[in-house]
Each structure stands twice: as C-alpha cells, then as structure tokens.
Amino acid sequence: MRDYKVVVLGAGGVGKSSVTVQFVQGVYVESYDPTIEDSYRKQIEIDGRACDLEILDTAGVAQFTAMRELYIKSGKGFLLVYSVTDENSLKELLALREQVLRIKDSDNVPMVLIGNKCDLKDDRVLSIEDGIKVSQDWGCVPFYETSAMYKTNVDEAFIDVVRQIMRKEAAITAEKKQAKQLQKQNALENSNNAANTGGTDKKANDDGNFDTKSTRTRNTKSSQKENNDEFGNKKEKSINKCCVIM
Ligand SMILES: Nc1nc2c(ncn2[C@@H]2O[C@H](COP(=O)(O)OP(=O)(O)OP(=O)(O)O)[C@@H](O)[C@H]2O)c(=O)[nH]1
Ligand SMILES: [Mg+2]
C-alpha cells in the first residue's frame, strides 16, 4: 500500500479541521477549537489502488504556525483552504502557496484550492468567480467550493490531490525508466561501435594496410554525421560515442 502525505493549510477558523474530520471520520465538528497540530490516517481505494493517507491538519492561528515550514517540507500534496465568508483568508492563501512553492522548489506541486463554508449563503463575501480567478492565476489548480457541514465536495477535494500525487509519482517513475533505457541503449551502441572499430582495424590488417588513425578518424566522422540532428546540432548520444572512440 502506498503512503500519501497530505497537508491542510489555511488561515485560522476557515474550517481545515472540520473538512479533515468530515473526510476521515464522517462527522461534523460544530465547536471551534483552534488546532496546534493534528494528524490523521485514512485508508482508501482510489482508482483500484489501496492508499494509506496521512493527513496533517495544521494550525491557522498565527501563534501556532511556527512548524509550518516543516509540514510543507514533508507533505506530498496540499489542500489550501479559505472561507467564502472571509476575504482575508483568501489573501492569506496567496502567501501560503508562494511558501509551498518556495520550500518545494517547484511550480508543479500537487495542490487543490478549497473555498469552504459555501453553505453560509448570507455570510458569503467571496463568489465562485473569485475562487476560479485565483485557481486560474495559479495555473488552473483544481478548485472546489466545499461545505464541511454538509460534506459537499469534501471527498472529491481529497481524492483529487491524491490523484495528482499519483500522477506525479507515475511521471517520475516513467522518466527514470526512460533514462535507464537510454543509458542501456547508449552502452549497447558504444560497445557496438567499439566492436566495429576493431573490425575495421582487422580488415586493414588483412589488407596489409594498417592505419588505426585514419580508420578512427573515418569512424568518428560518420558517427558525428549520424549523430547530428537535422539542424546540424550535436545530439547528446554522439558525445558518448565520441568519448568511447577517442
Ligand atoms: N457553516 C459552516 N461552518 C463551518 C464549516 N466548516 C467549519 N465551520 C465552522 O467554523 C469554525 C472553525 O472551524 P475549524 O475547522 O475549527 O477551523 P480551522 O481552520 O481548523 O481553524 P484553526 O485550527 O484555528 O486554524 C467551527 O465552528 C466550525 O464548526 C462549514 O463548511 N460550514
Ligand atoms: Mg483546526
């Protein structure tokens, strides 16, 4: 079973704990008890794959946020939560996202944007469009309006971020596999090349016209030709070949 570490971030009181507890335990917490740090585990099957989720519910209130950097370092995916009833909570997320990207040193971090408390119609100060705009500014980060109270879009948001982590891991694995294959192919070509060079040398010997230098020069040239792209630029493979021959 694969481990997926998801971190829930956002300003104080936006509903991070309520959303998390609704997802993990299926209950709604009415009371407000500011979080210092809570960790949850949930096993879930996503796309036929068993996943072990570790969810870190972080503090939003300023006096408890000292550990944020550590949480971000350890997280693989992030739920960035604001409340549709609190304009400042969305503004705070902009800085939080910057912090995530900086610490992860990447623009490609599994992430969802959540506008929580969408059931509070009378208290709403941020529209769906406000959320969509931010999601677009962030390069079309998936955006969900949620209600922890009614469990609206809660599962969907968590599953989305886990899927993003899965996709990212699959892409990294595929890249590694491709690099390995390329390495193997290069090694094979190099050894073939070395064998060819030996063969030509032997023929030259048979003809009684032994000239290692000219044979090598000829091989190098032909290697260079076949290893140049259509614009005459050297392909990386040719560098390896030349290294072996020379
Ligand atoms: N109506 C409504 N109230 C919500 C919703 N989500 C959370 N609340 C309420 O908002 C208050 C704060 O929720 P929490 O989940 O504790 O907020 P938090 O983001 O974890 O707060 P910190 O831990 O201090 O950062 C609680 O009283 C919740 O019951 C929601 O979707 N709808
Ligand atoms: Mg909390």
Automatic annotation (TrEMBL):
Biological process according to GO: regulation of establishment of cell polarity; signal transduction
Family matches, as InterPro entries: P-loop_NTPase, Rsr1, Small_GTP-bd, Small_GTPase, Small_GTPase_Ras-type
Entry keyword set: Cell membrane, GTP-binding, Hydrolase, Lipoprotein, Membrane, Methylation, Nucleotide-binding, Prenylation
One example GO MF annotation: GTP binding
Major enzyme class: hydrolase
Pfam family, one: Ras
Protein name: Ras-related protein RSR1
Family: Belongs to the small GTPase superfamily. Ras family.
Region (Disordered): 183-233
Bias (Basic and acidic residues): 223-233
Reactions mediated catalytically: GTP + H2O = GDP + phosphate + H(+)
Localization annotation: Cell membrane
Membrane topology: Lipid-anchor
